[in-house]
Write a structure and sequence with these properties.
It comes from Terrimonas ginsenosidimutans. This is ACP phosphodiesterase. Pfam families: ACP_PD. By secondary structure, the chain is mainly alpha-helical. The chain has one domain (about 5-200). It has helices at about 5-10, 15-20, 35-55, 55-60, 65-70, 75-85, 95-110, 115-130, 130-135, 140-150, 160-165, 170-200.
Length: about 200
């Protein structure tokens, strides 16, 4: 769940951000239960996920993790992409990551009644532990990785993933840069199209 990327790729639209952040918690046509602006975010979330999975840079980045984590290598790359985004000075110069994180929590809390129950239950932990800001540190993504493994059905440890991140750091950073240069304009194009089609 690359929450930082989904928040960032909502392009400063609060309703779209709320929908984008809950995308993994809303299945199929359940999206129609939400306001139009949140439907845009939910649909955008799904398009971002599909584009991420299919991008050649993501396929290359997953390779070091595939022997140990198999199908979960994609979820691991979601966390790692958020780490590189959090440290991308072109997107978050100076202390702007902290301000962006706080603004995101404020928007989500202001729309608490519209969020799915399971996301509402998670949000206090996200905010208290400041997941979005702490993606920039190895400690922060280590915690995210541990949470991912804990929720996985067949996996038992995340230490290997962190060691692989360290040993392939430059390769993974290069994959992020290649991926992000394509993802950002693609997401904005889809954001604009969905706003026109769905409204909000």
């Amino acid at each position: 769940m690359n929450f930082l990327a989904h928040a960032f790729l909502s392009f400063d639209d609060p309703g779209v951000l709320a929908g984008n952040m809950i995308g993994d918690f809303v299945k199929g046509r359940q999206r129609l239960d939400y306001p139009a602006e949140m439907q845009v975010g939910i649909m955008l979330h799904r398009l971002i996920d599909s584009y991420t999975d299919e991008h050649p840079a993501t396929r290359a980045a997953k390779e070091p993790f595939r022997p140990a984590y198999r199908l979960y290598s994609g979820a691991i790359m979601d966390v790692i992409y958020d780490h590189f985004l959090a440290n991308d000075v072109d997107e978050f110069p100076d202390e702007s990551l902290f301000a962006f994180s706080q603004k995101t929590y404020t928007i989500l809390n202001s729309r608490l009644h519209s969020l799915p129950a399971n996301f509402r239950a998670m949000l206090p932990y996200m905010q208290q532990e400041d997941w979005l800001y702490n993606y920039q540190s190895k400690w922060g993504i280590g915690k995210s990785m541990h949470g991912l493994i804990r929720r996985a059905t067949y996996l038992t440890e995340s230490d290997t993933a962190m060691k692989l991140l360290d040993s392939h750091y430059q390769l993974l950073q290069d994959c992020y840069r290649q991926f992000w240069s394509d993802m950002k304009p693609y997401a904005f194009e889809q954001f604009t199209r969905l706003k026109n089609e769905i409204g909000g």
